[in-house]
Design goal:
The chain is an alpha+beta fold. The chain has helices spanning 17-24, 30-38, 112-120, 153-165, 239-246, 267-270, 301-310, and strands spanning 2-7, 42-44, 47-48, 61-66, 83-86, 90-95, 134-135, 144-150, 169-177, 184-193, 201-203, 209-221, 225-232, 277-285, 292-296. It contains 7 helices and 15 strands. Strands 5, 6, 7, 8, 9, 10, 11, 12, 13, 14 and 15 form an 11-stranded mixed β-sheet that branches. A 4-stranded antiparallel β-sheet has the order 1-4-2-3. The longest helix is centred in the middle third of the chain and has 13 residues, at 153-165.
Amino acid sequence: MASERVTVVESEIGERLDRVLAAHLGALSRSRLKRLVEAGQVSLEGAPVTDPSLRVRRGQSFAVELPAPVADRPVPQAMPLTILFEDAHLLVLDKPAGLVVHPAPGNPDRTLVNALLAHCGESLAGIGGVRRPGIVHRLDKDTSGIMVVAKTELAHRALSRAFATRDLTRSYLALVRGVPHPREGAIETRIGRSKANRKKMAVVARGGKAAVTRYRVLRSFGLAAALVECRLATGRTHQIRVHLTAKGHPLIGDPVYGRAGGAALPPAARSFPRQALHANRLAFTHPATGETLSFSSDLPSDMRDLIAVLESI
């Protein structure tokens, strides 16, 4: 990761931070620099600055961290995949926890896209004129479960539209701290970027986007934990994780939205290494045949082992 330093000159006093950075770093667009600021990649005296509209002052010196560029054409890399369904138009797979979906700074390769390029080969008809898989929805790196991927332009458009209009069914299983009350209901809020940490999402009073999660407690483990089914009526970034945390029941193992400690949980549960979230069901209409396709996925072994630990409470 390269680093640049930008020092405010007399004529720039009172200007927006992103405008000043663009004037000094001509190789980067203002929109690109704005995203870097919002991502916490710009700092002042060692503290991140996340507001691109900040008015700069005389003598301020900003450090700008520039992530290494990611290749625009990911390379095929053979990796084992659990394919649940595949035809000429799309494929459905069961993603393991720990697998990043798309190349990005910090994860330039060994992603699901790299694996799909190797798996599909010439069967990819191409999306937007490029022979690549069509990612129409994503699961976080450490969330496991079912994903559908388009192989053709037609499938990509239809599936993207289905996800945008929620014309499909998908549910998740989550292991959370405590037992939600009531045991069944809906969480309706607005979700936007956290003002305290731009890398996180949060429930916000104004702005953001409307978000609805319907939940149902399937099983409780004393008062310490519960297995919860979540169905999404909207699809906001980190929606389930944010909503359950806002309700006071963060996912066990969530490194971003969960809470540390937790004396009520056994040590093995407190040290669970990822957010305990699994996309267990997905049903949608096949974009070419009109057939209703429905898929389910059992809990992965690490979450089954976690349940066994919780049963000892």
